[in-house]
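The freezer alarm interrupted the setup, so I double-checked each line after restarting. Inputs confirmed:
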Amino acid sequence: MNSLPLTLAQDAGLLEKLFFGGAGASPLAHYTDQVFLWILYFCIFWFVLLMGLMFYWVVKYRRRPGVPPQRSAHHNTRLELVWTIVPSVFLGAMFYFGFQGYITKLVSPTNAEVIDITGQKWDWVATYKNGVNPQEKVEIGGNTSAPVIIVPVGRPVQFRMTSIDVLHSFWIPDFRFKFDVMPNRYTSFWIEAEEPGDHWIFCAEYCGDRHSEMSAILRAVPADEYDATLARWWNETGALTPAQRGQRIATGMGGCIACHSINGSPGVGPTWKDAWGVEVALADGTKIPADDEAAWMNYVIESIRKPSAQIHAGFPSPSPMPLYNFTDEELGYLAAYIKSLSSKYAAPAETPAETPAEQN
Ligand SMILES: [Cu+2]
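Predicted 3D structure, all chains:
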């Protein structure tokens, strides 16, 4: 951080509060505010000066009866050079300070803790360095829950981001950071939380119906608590059944339950409650036979891989279901989860132990 060309103010001034709602949560955020406010002061100064002079001269040289208009100077090289070069120098300075901050935020220290962020309609999923992606959620009202992403205080954290569907943008206002998240490509930036606390994360790129609900909470916790939480999650995940893993994907990054209810209520897609092993009529007239395990497995996996290949009669075609990039393992977990929601198959061991967040 010592590569930054400005000293950093720690307390939010009035304008910082006005424009940003409060002080930034990291030294880099203070820097951003500082640069922003200096540019603002600079613009206000010139605006007032120029408008003041303009009005003064408009009044002073207004047309008066009996006073003939004066010829204005035709050309003045010296003046024109001055009003080109001086602003260019100021613009150069603004660019320098802005670019310096931008570069500093992008190039993370090599010892940074890497957290993988996957953007997806309409969720953020964090995968930590030990491979856990716990997807703990908190209710935030409006029938919505938001995942909690934890970061250690006082340690640089690099977000390595990608999307599995459309363009999103990972935005943490308190850290003055926003960066595009794209499919088939990784982007990254880093932050360092100064104090424990919660901060909003939003999606800043319109990505569909529930874009505005694509939020998450960044929770800065003391470094030892962070390590302990990762270890705890690791222990918990190791003990999950395939159905529970499937449940995590379906309620978390998959976002499936936005369209597929698990309690029988109607939705955009067929409910999963007691669906497995029941005869399904397809739009093309064929049927998925009841109680044929292999046929059901193929149907479910095919439906997730290629949503529009087989359309459940009565549902829209082409299917509104997003395209996913699940591994064979993950597809198996999802199938296990859907099957576990069928009371006639649910083996006790496959019943999810607890539902992390009631979604509907
Ligand atoms: Cu989005």
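Quick read of the result. The pocket of copper (II) ion is lined by residues 119, 168, 203, 205, 207, 211, 214 (CB under 6 Å).
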